[in-house]
Specification:
Blueprint lengths: L8 H28 L4 H13 L1 H7 L10 H23 L6 H7 L1 H6 L21 H13 L5 H23 L2 H15 L8 H8 L3 H11 L5 H11 L2 H13 L1 H7 L11 H18 L6 H16 L10 H12 L1 H17 L1
Helix pairs in contact: 1-2, 1-4, 2-4, 3-4, 4-7, 4-11, 5-8, 8-9, 8-11, 8-12, 9-10, 10-13, 11-12, 13-15, 13-16, 15-17, 16-17, 16-18
């Protein structure tokens, strides 16, 4: 019997707490044990830091496994492995011992190979001093490839996941180079693609490229044997650029103070003023709702963007931002009552986590 895809916030949270989070913890425990054994101290430090500090990325992404029916556990294994690659490489680039864009490009070929079941494993560290990771990154890639080999019709989604991965890799290269090169590279890159994202600024397009949600959605549906050409196209246009853009803009919104302190690039800082940022976040919420309108399981996808709003704005970091409370109330109102439910649950989580 097929597993029922949640249609309400209560049923979604029940499935997440009972099935998704325990499975994610188990997968992350495996990769943490592998990371502990990495011979090179720098690679080991960054691998462990990515798991500890960014665990919630895997927990959030794994919600898409609920679309995979009888292959739910395989979807979780793929999502955790792929997101762990993403978070690990982000750490290697963000806190890098190298400032070489070719190094960053080669590292991110791991994300391309993870989505290409027939690709051989490369030496992704070839252009940096740190080399010995005990096959940690290679095994993450192999795990993703193994899950994708279970798909009978991977060709239906392959072009779409590769487009999303290509944009993600481009972004990671351009945003991590020398500070004086970042904006020129990002704006030139945007000029190549702006016809695909009319009405977006370069920094909004960059945000949309920085999410893995569309990939997780496509792979999970495919693992559930519920994929065809029309659905693949609808998911791609439903998630890129607006749902993915909303995801990353919210992430940057709550990290504004941290990024100022650490001198990190933050896309929300490029809005001309706070009111413009508020209006554009409203716009991304509206467009996310509009673009998922024709998707199968629309109520599930609507809960995704409502969950993003509730989850990110429930983070205690919001209280440190100018007008954070006011903007939170405004965006929760725009997102609907289920966003407020997710927000309440998130605040409760942080309250009892202390």
């Amino acid at each position: 019997m097929a597993k029922r895809i949640p249609t309400t916030a209560v049923s979604l949270m029940n499935a997440v707490y009972r099935r998704i989070l325990p499975a994610v913890d188990e997968e992350l425990s495996h990769w943490k044990n592998r990371a502990i054994q990495i011979p090179n101290a720098e690679l080991r430090t960054q691998a462990l830091a990515s798991i500890e500090a960014k665990r919630f990325h895997c927990q959030g992404g794994a919600v898409y496994a609920l679309l995979a029916d009888h292959n739910e556990r395989e979807a979780i294994r793929f999502i955790v492995a792929y997101q762990t690659i993403s978070d690990y490489l982000d750490n290697l680039c963000d806190r890098s011992t190298s400032m070489d864009p070719e190094d960053f490009r080669l590292l991110h070929e791991a994300m391309h190979d993870a989505l290409t079941p027939g690709d051989p494993i490369k030496n992704y560290y070839e252009r940096r001093n740190e080399q010995r990771d005990g096959e940690y990154l290679a095994d993450l890639v192999r795990t993703c490839q193994k899950m994708l080999r279970k798909l009978d019709h991977y060709s239906v989604i392959e072009d779409y996941v590769m487009k999303l991965e290509g944009l993600y890799a481009d972004l990671q290269v351009h945003k991590h180079v020398k500070v004086e090169e970042r904006i020129p590279r990002l704006t030139s890159w945007y000029d190549w693609y702006k016809a695909c994202a009319p009405g977006l600024s370069w920094y909004e397009f960059s945000a949309a490229a920085g999410s893995t949600l569309g990939i997780f959605c496509l792979v999970s549906y495919a693992l559930g044997d519920n994929m065809n050409d029309n659905l693949a196209q609808e998911i791609y246009t439903g998630y890129f650029p607006y749902m993915q853009g909303l995801h990353i803009l919210l992430d940057y919104y709550i990290d504004q103070q941290e990024d100022i302190e650490e001198a990190d690039l933050n896309f929300c800082s490029y809005y001309s003023n706070e009111e413009m940022m508020r209006k554009r976040l409203h716009y991304f919420i509206e467009q996310s709702d509009k673009h998922i309108d024709g998707l199968s399981n629309r109520s599930f996808h609507k809960m995704i963007y409502q969950g993003l709003v509730g989850l990110y704005l429930g983070d205690p970091k919001v209280k440190k931002l100018d007008n954070g409370i006011s903007i939170t109330r405004d965006l929760l109102r725009a997102s609907g009552y289920q966003a407020r439910f997710f927000h309440w649950n998130t605040r409760l989580y942080y309250k009892y986590k202390r």
